[in-house]
Amino acid sequence: MTDTTTKTAEPITIKKYANRRLYNTGTSTYVTLEDLAAMVKTGEDFVVYDAKTGEDITRSVLAQIIFEQENKEGQNLLPIAFLRQLIRFYGDSMQMLVPRYLEVSLDSLTREQEKFRQQMAQAFGGSPFGALEETVRRNMEMFERAFAMFTPFARRESQNAGGAPEPDKPAAKSGGEIDDLKRELDEMRRKVDKLTGGND
């Protein structure tokens, strides 16, 4: 894609036609999902509309971009355990909290990314994942507190029944999820070690 796009205050409108072609109304050119991915990376904001119905299909197109990226060799960002857990949240009472939790987590990671990059560059001097693990732990604690706000009756009933073991169950579950995340981080650490070892 030629670098003819310019950052504007208003999102660029992309129209998707029945033949699956995407048309950038800002540059008056047809674009691909790769082009849209490049626009996202450079901070270009856009919305995608179905050319026939006028329906906003931005979410599904962005999801399609992620799907395409995940299918590229060595491009995987979404661990299998994460994908399975995400699927479990659909239709669950927690579903309404998940988007905000993910937004907060990614915002935190974005703010800390330069620090993480420096720690990755100094991988020989220690674990670059310590700060990331701490961020995940803090986010999980915040998520659990938010969930507790939405389940006051269940918590009160368990306390009234004198069922002391009951409140431990969610903690055990979240602890298991943290363990899953730590296993994923360990796997990433092994890959980094293998890469850095191969550069010696």
The percent of residues in helical segments reads 55-70%
Give the N-to-C terminal Cα separation: 37 Å
Biggest sheet overview: 4 strands, mixed
Low-confidence runs (pLDDT<50, min 5 residues)?
A: 1-6, 165-173
Number of beta strands: 4
How would you state the average pLDDT, rounded?
76
Q: Any idea what the radius of gyration is?
A: 21 Å
Fraction of residues in β-strands: 5-15%
Q: Order of strands in the sheet with the most strands?
A: 3-2-1-4
The structure class reads: alpha+beta
Tally of separate helices: 7
- How do the helices and strands follow one another from N- to C-terminus? EEEHEHHHHHH
Overall, the morphology is globular
Structure characteristics:
about 200 residues; alpha+beta; 4-stranded mixed sheet; 7 helices; about 60% helix; globular
Overall description:
By secondary structure, the chain is an alpha+beta fold. The chain contains seven helices and four strands. The protein has helices spanning 33-41, 58-70, 80-89, 98-121, 130-149, 152-160, 168-198, and strands at 12-16, 22-24, 29-31, 46-50. A four-stranded mixed beta sheet has the order 3-2-1-4. The radius of gyration is 21 Å and the shape is globular. It starts with 11 loop residues before the first strand and ends with a helix.
